[in-house]
Amino acid sequence: MRTGEVAQTHTVRVQEALRTAILEGRLEPGTRLRAETLAERLRSSRTPVREALLLLAREGLVEIEPRRGATVRSFDAADLADLYEVRSLIEPHAAARAAERIDEGGLAQLSEVHERSLAHDAADEDSLAALCALNEEFHGVIVQAAGSPRLTAAMSAVSGIPRVFRARFWRDGEQREQSLFCHRELLGAIRAGNGGLAEAVMRMHIQGARAFLVEVMAGEH
Amino acid sequence: MRTGEVAQTHTVRVQEALRTAILEGRLEPGTRLRAETLAERLRSSRTPVREALLLLAREGLVEIEPRRGATVRSFDAADLADLYEVRSLIEPHAAARAAERIDEGGLAQLSEVHERSLAHDAADEDSLAALCALNEEFHGVIVQAAGSPRLTAAMSAVSGIPRVFRARFWRDGEQREQSLFCHRELLGAIRAGNGGLAEAVMRMHIQGARAFLVEVMAGEH
DNA sequence: AGCGCCGCGTTTGCATGCAAAGAATGCCGG
DNA sequence: CCGGCATTCTTTGCATGCAAACGCGGCGCT
Fold this sequence. Notes:
The structure is a homodimer.
Chain A: H1 10-23, E1 32-33, H2 35-41, H3 46-59, E2 62-65, E3 69-72, H4 77-101, H5 104-118, H6 125-145, H7 149-156, H8 163-171, H9 173-191, H10 195-220
Antiparallel strand pairs in A: 1-3, 2-3
Helix pairs in contact in A: 1-3, 2-3, 4-6, 4-9, 4-10, 5-6, 5-9, 6-8, 9-10
Chain A binds a DNA duplex through residues 9-11, 34-36, 39, 44-48, 50, 66-69.
């Protein structure tokens, strides 16, 4: 599959460890990221850590002020709205392309991810986390299946927001139901090769999520 | 303006030097990029060069094979088509937002860039190069004016193709005329705050460029 | 003669030294 | 007692040492 190729270099390993930590909320926004400390914790040295931080800065997950260090970026309602606006631009297009270009393997993978999603009832935190991860995987497979390296790159520059927000989302029964519904429809549309439908469903899916999250955040602050 | 902040660190300096060299064609596709050589040439050391290469890899301008080195990425017709497809997704949206959100400064900047474009007659290579650069600046200002950090990030993951292709474009009198026309219309629509019109013009602009370039490349190979 | 194996040079990727820029602290003057 | 300045201490960013991986070329084996 296309996604292999994950270089076994410290830089990449550190980058992924940090990204996961940030997305899962183990590193809170604002946390100062000191090279030496991270190097120790991740069994590496300052150089790979520095490189990873540069890459994560470009992903928008950390902020680097020259000569002053890196911190975990914090997200506010505006960021969330911005993020979802861009997603609602890119992902529907990706879905349409995916419907036209996906191959057997991709379809099987998509289907399998969806099946696994259905197996979770979101009764506990672990199940919730699993749902978040599966959701990301589902969307990732679609973007990949669009077969456009540039689109993938554009998405990756936009992808992540801390899972805290996403958890909020999946905790809500109605949203969960709506999402799984959309995923099922997406799967069907893509399998049928119906790009227009896939695009429309994805647009609804993302816009719905956006509306919910913005509302929730507005209510909290 | 938002774009300030250009860190005076070697990494960034090297990154920009390399990007410019690649985009201007001074580094041809396929060229092997050895850390030590570049470090010497750019009066730096291997570490910043390595970091710059990592970032450029993420921009899609160089390819890094772990343990085997970096090379200047080569572009074929498919890449070009892919690139322009993504641009024709992102930029019309950016234009619409820009029309709604641009401020006085941005408008002045956009207008000024357009004026300068008109001053070039594309009679010689220098003038042509200047037109390419101004065109990039024009589009850059619009994306910035959209006021969406994520959109900017997404674009930057997609931005550059070697200027060779763009030069081909600007050399063509009809395309040049069409482009300047579109830019004028864009400027007008954005100034008038007409997002829908700006979006439509931009879509036409990019689709037109795409069609021309794909055709030219197909004819050459 | 063809094929494969082994050793060598080159180059990457990681670790770490080192100077300089910020941040923190204490000292002195008002 | 508080504010401003100098000094110290921390941390970054760059340079460079060093081991290990890759590719090449020569050598021996079949």
